[in-house]
Records
---
Amino acid sequence: MKTKIYYVMDTMCGWCYGNSEVITKIQEKYKDIYDFTILPGGMWTGDNVKKMSSGLGDFIKGHNLEVEKLTGKVFGEGYNKNILEGNSIVLDSFPGAKAVVIIQKIKKEVVFSFLKKIQDAFFVYGKDMNNLEVYTEIAESFDISSKEFEKEFHSEGLRQDTFKCFDMANSMGVTSFPTVIAVKGNKVAIKSQGYSSFDDLDKIFSSSNFDK
């Protein structure tokens, strides 16, 4: 049985956006060796849902400068204008988390590419990620029916499955995003926390004792 790799992230996490190219390349390189699963962590959910304000926007802008400097990923003009400079945007991780869980359920082989498109919609183009149409359009680009996606999105079963993902991330000791976790049998090992370059993460995955 393949060692399971859980990539714990949040669709509204700037560092996860910065890490998107790295983890996609890692998954592509090692997908035949390890069983990769994306695990939404629920950064801004429940009482932690935020409404954008000038103070919060300025704080995030400063944070994003660090992300750009270290990762080379650039936050788009649409994101800066529509999200960080807007006063009506609600930052809620739950819709994005549900979308990831849906794709993992019905077409797992495209989930890392789907995640990148969600991140681009938010961090590059500044789309309102509370708008279901944003997700259905992305789903359709992967030949997934918008009706099928919407039906799953509104189901109680999906709601519960998404909460289970949050609980699982907490139970494995995740304290920051992104985090890479290897699970083999009953052994759970955190392999990486925060941003890692491709070379650094590749060294971890290619290590002879990675899953021992």
---
Amino acid sequence: MRKVSSNIKLLIVFLIAFTGAILSAVLNKHETGLPYREEMKEASNLAQQWFDIIKEVKDKKQIVSDAHSNVPNSALIGDDWSEITTTLGSLEAKETSTNPDFAALVVRWLHEATIKQGDKVGVVLSGSFPSISISVMAALQTMKIDAVVTSSLGASTFGANQEAATWIDMEHWLEL
């Protein structure tokens, strides 16, 4: 009788275990999406629509940032410094915040906080992160949640700190 080396035995055991793991993953695969998944998509899409409106208005008014950014929604990034800049900010943080999926995240947080249609919430919006402010408002509108809004005029670096494109201007452009 021929003897099988221990390396071959280990390889066979590994292949059986690996095959079992793959089969288990395939057979037990089922997506259990969040019950408000469509609402999250809707809020994200609305935020992107609003981002596009800001870009259109800034293009029309020829408002260009002096920041060198190539993120998809860079129109929401302000200047390095202006007369209304309040504090220092991070360009990388502002770039990260331009993802419209933050609106979906806010929808999730609102659901987890058991806030629902018709509820009233207080919201403080900052010109420092205009894209986050837009995402929050998109989530609230999508979920039909009433908001009492307080907004700031000033903004940190790379926020809504352009004198012709403050957060208050953006609210007006979006009719929030």
---
Amino acid sequence: KVLLLFNILTLLSTKESYARFPFDRYKKEKWDIEHINSQADNFPSPNDREDWLKDVQEYLDKNLSLHVNAEFLIKEIANLLQDKVNFVLLYQKIRGCLEDSEDGDWVHGLGNLTLLDASTNRSYKNSLFPIKRARIIENDKTGLFVPICTKNAFLKFYSKSPKDLTFWKQVDADAYLAAISHTLISFNSTLEEANHD
């Protein structure tokens, strides 16, 4: 409920915008609370591995210039998709290249969670942050509804000085959490003022 309220209050605070939260869609469709940075212990199941690898391969094909080892990883993925062996080793290499190794309690906290429609969330399962980010941007471009705060988080709007759009780090999660807190505290103050009048 906190993330839903955060999205609604964000839209309401933008007085120049005509955007409104689509409550009808929220009520009719299924929504998930999504980890922005995937959890390290969410290893793809045997049934999901091929799709996971294809997502990584597609992302790397489009972003070769961003990653030093991209061409090597693409070749490794192609080999693995043919042989179906050594998934664990390649998985670890990919995570090492595309995901920050930062870990800690923040990964399970509110600063790493966002509201997302269930079909998008389940379509990318255990994907890494840059792949999720690319999917969110693509959905927004094609007109699929992405909650404003979800989009802002994946675009690193809340981060103070986003240097690297490939990783979601604790500093990003902390800035996002601070934005949530600030918005909810401001709303609570407004309610208290209204109750005193």
---
Amino acid sequence: MIKDYVIFIEGLSDLGDLRELKPEILKAASMAVNKAADRARVRAAKEMRRQVNFPARYLEGQNSRLRVTKRAKPDDPVAIITGRRRPTSLARFATGSRKGRGGGVYVTVKPGRSRFIGRSFLMPLRAGRDELGNVGLAVRTKRGARPRNAYKPVKIAEGLWLLYGPSVDQVFKTVREDIAPDTQEFLAREFARLLNLDIVR
């Protein structure tokens, strides 16, 4: 099953068989698809941050975990938006810690909703294990038990687990259907606009 969000010339049914179209029409279609993909990515990132407390830089810029991974071409008018599938370290959502016996860290995964994780702490990781300055959020459990209600925890030692939150891809799936109608409408408008420009003639 394809997990990437694909934007193409669906909705422009009057185009007919692509093999019979003039080059300028195919060029307009591919340019419109690419612009619609860029717009969809930006809007998706904004909607995702309403649900999950991702730092803005996590979904923007050169190192964004939400990208247009395939751009449309005249002979292949398809663009693909891909979200990173690896679970996100809970260290990214840490907002504070509690000192004293047992310790613990506060995390805010959903905006405005803080959660305390007892017996947890931030710890340095081997290079390459996590991209957040090689820091992860770990928790100690009694008798080595798997942490309750944890999302895909990773056991790194007896009774010691790294904790993770939802992946960018997982959150992206929850918003992509919401942005689809606007994306399709924008695609149709942009395609019609480009057909009237000298750039595609």
